[in-house]
Amino acid sequence: MNWMGIRVVKYEQDLIAQQEIMWRVKPNIVIETGTRFGGSALFYAQMMDLMKINGVVYTIDISDQEYKAIPVHDKVERIIGSSLSVNVLEGIEKLIRDHSDPRVMVVLDSDHTTEFVTQEIAAYQGFVTKGSYLVVEDTNQLGPRLAVFAFLAMHPEFNPDKTIEPSITTNPNGYLLRS
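Given the sequence above, the corresponding structure tokens read:
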């Protein structure tokens, strides 16, 4: 599908669920791993515009090759590098720490192997503010699904929010609300 003419590799129902999360939480920081074409980063930024949220979308990818033709939005900051690199993680941590009142939502959608998703969840879960969401994409695939189940067994502060999860989704049990 496309968002404003830019490719988004998500089900429409999942984008609507993420819009609802943004409406409920009003995040002023959205961290997205796996930029790919840039459509979802633009979507999050425009949702902030519609909700009059003064915020930023940090979108992280190992390459900007597919993203180069995408129009720029003033709320989108691209970070090129592995989402698990020390430099990227320290940079994100500093950006959040420098914010006066961060409300952080994280969307993980990069490498889908169990090992990588497990590491990514461990690295990013601490950035999610209470009352916000860690969205693990593509939990209909084995790698992300196993990583989420292992994470949930060790982290009772996160729970799948079935009230937000659409009936048709690529992210079953992947909308994790932090209490």
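The chain has one domain: 2-178. Try to locate this feature in the token string yourself.
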